[in-house]
Amino acid sequence: MTPCQPPAPACLPRPSLYVHGSAVRIRTLWGVILLLGGLWSPLAAEESEFRLIVTANQARVDGDFFVDLQMRTAEANPSPHWLHSLTLDVQHDSALAAYSDTCALNWALGPGYEASVSKLPGYYRVLVTANGISGSDAAWSVNSDWQRLVTLRWKIAAVSGSYKVAMLQDTDAAAYFIDAPPSDLT
Fold first, then answer.
1. Rounded to whole angstroms, what are the CA distances from 124 to 22, 116, 165?
2. Distance between CA atoms of residues 89 and 168, nearest Å
3. Chunked mean pLDDT (size 10), the chain, 186 residues
């Protein structure tokens, strides 16, 4: 004997992405959307290289310890780029203490950039954005030569033979304008 009532909605089969080849169409649609989104983006994420160079070490308690943060475009792409944004974390050990006032000196960036270094437990976070850049003449050009971006500084808390200062590889990133930055529209 068959029931005369249709099955309850909870018992109905759920629609599948694989019915009638719709999975291929959905993947193709997402691929097209991602491709178009990439074409409209005003930024390019390029390979960048960073390094830290010790520029001052007074080797005494309460002495200064300075490091230049330098960057360049990867050697595979030596053409210059205009910097749009950057983030980088620089870790330090307990033998170095964060400066009580500003921990960043000698920014190489021109006007129009918002740049900061946040003092966080055990590391500094370097952030740069080009929110106020009005044209290519104001943008900072990064090329295949090493260039100082900023000098980071610490006070020596304990004298040791060496001080651990290292960039965290998971958080370093730079983005560049694809074309010349936009001109002032006013």
1. 49, 10, 10
2. 6
3. 46 42 44 38 58 92 94 73 86 90 89 90 91 75 88 92 84 72 50
How far CA 179 is from CA of 43, 135, 143, in Å, comes to 8, 10, 15
- pLDDT for 16 equals 40
Of the candidates 143, 72, 139, the residue with the CA atom closest to the CA atom of residue 110? 139
pTM: 0.69
Can you say how many angstroms the Cα of residue 158 is from the centroid of all Cα atoms in its chain?
A: 31
Convert 35-73 to b/e letters by CB count within 10 Å (16 or more is b).
eeeeeeeeebebebebeeeeeeeeeeeeeebbbbbbbbb
